[in-house]
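hey so i finally got around to running both of the ones u sent me last week. sorry it took forever, my laptop kept dying halfway thru and i had to restart like 3 times lol. anyway pasting them below in the order u listed, first the sequence line then the structure token line for each. didnt double check formatting much so if smth looks off just lmk and ill redo it

first one:
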Amino acid sequence: AEQLTAGYCIAFNTHAGSEQMYVGFNNCVKVFDLSRPGREHRTVPTFKRANRETTGQRGIISCIAFNPDKSGLYACGSYSRNIGLYAAPKGNLLYNLQGQRGGITQVQWSRDGNYLFSGGRKDREILCWDVRNTGDVLLSLPRTVSTNQRLQFDLDHSGRYLITPSHGSPADSAHGAEDTAHQQVRH
């Protein structure tokens, strides 16, 4: 009998032919088809070891977000301080982004799907990645996170403002987050 373990995060993929739930675990994501009841799932490994070689995204998958452009592109953040960009439905790793100082606790796409924002625990910045030029940090937005707590951030409905709590102040706002990203790309 399979032993049950709790997942670390969940995200729904409503862009697939049927609604699916993606659940983050250590070195893998489990995909459940919600049109079928039960425990059946497909395991998508994020990290592989073969013949003393390792590939992929190592560690606990702590957050998942689907690109709103309905392309099937999704981002997985890891407590091992990296972000994997994957293509659904097979879960092929396209890019492994590194640069966050703390374990990733949130990934969130801009409304147009061109930018990915990421934040981590004990990390003093939210990074904005330009996924059209993958691997490039477009801008860094300061915040104060002095613990391992998961401090969320969010973009307003217009995509112009990114709001985040910080230790020491009720809320810091990074004004013009998406606008600044668009301006950076144009120059």
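and the second one:
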Amino acid sequence: MALVRRLLPLLLLATGARGELDDATLAEELSADEECLAGGGFEGECSLNMLQQRLRPRAAEVRAPQESVAMTQIAAEAEAGEGSASLQCGAALCAADSICCQSRDINAALCCAPFSVCYFSAYNYEAGVRILNQLGLGSPRCYACNEKEDGCKNRQGGSKYYGPLPPGTKDVEGLPPVAEIPQ
């Protein structure tokens, strides 16, 4: 009992539990504890169980996190088919006017701004280099659209989100042939 009287206040203080610890309450709660009775007395194994008993009411006070109103509204619109507020891009939720840059070969997606272009960066292990492509292979990237570099013709960049690659898509050196790319 002496060990419990010494340890329990420290444990209660460390966890932020409230309440006075008088002898009568402590003895009553410990004597009602099956584990303490089975152990043959009020030794160290009782202190942790006693702490758990005292903290149980506090645990019930912890509230579940509240969903944000905006996310609830977006989810409701998507469920109702009014998807004008957003689009689901892999695991990401993007603004409706975004470009969904979703990889075809790895589980990765990125929301690009509507004025940007989607590219992918695939690693060629044989050559030891990364290859930028618009086949949907590798990790997604968003780049500023640059008319000078001819980068605005295919803003969707071969993203899986928009379906199969268009017929006539050319192979890229160092990457698998288009016919072997998962659609």
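quick thing i noticed on the 2nd:
DSSP finds five helices and seven strands in the chain.
anyway thats it, ttyl
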